[in-house]
């Protein structure tokens, strides 16, 4: 893990299928393709839906925040750290996830694509 711009960051290659993933992209991006098992709360709804995250995130566990390329997720990661949560930004986002050959599914569970 390294700290770029003061935001704790993790590489896609360091994540396992058991790690908790929070996707903060918008609905159309999520529907086109996302990591299976990720929790979806768009950044635009995030503060209003914060309670959903605290219900579903593992107690005391790390929250790996992902977006398309890492910009929005860095902002959400900063917010979560300010709330006292253990959060890291996934470096390069879903673009790197897909490029690394990690599975991407669409809204129906079929193979998806990152848009």
UniProtKB/TrEMBL annotation:
Keyword Chaperone: no
Key word Transferase present: yes
Taxonomic path: Bacteria, Bacillati, Actinomycetota, Actinomycetes, Kitasatosporales
SUPFAM superfamilies: Rhodanese/Cell cycle control phosphatase
Protein name per UniProt: Rhodanese-related sulfurtransferase
Keyword tags: Transferase
Organism encoding this protein: Streptomyces netropsis (Streptoverticillium netropsis)
Record-level Gene Ontology MF annotations: transferase activity
Domain of life (superkingdom): Bacteria
Domain Rhodanese as annotated: residue spans: 15-106
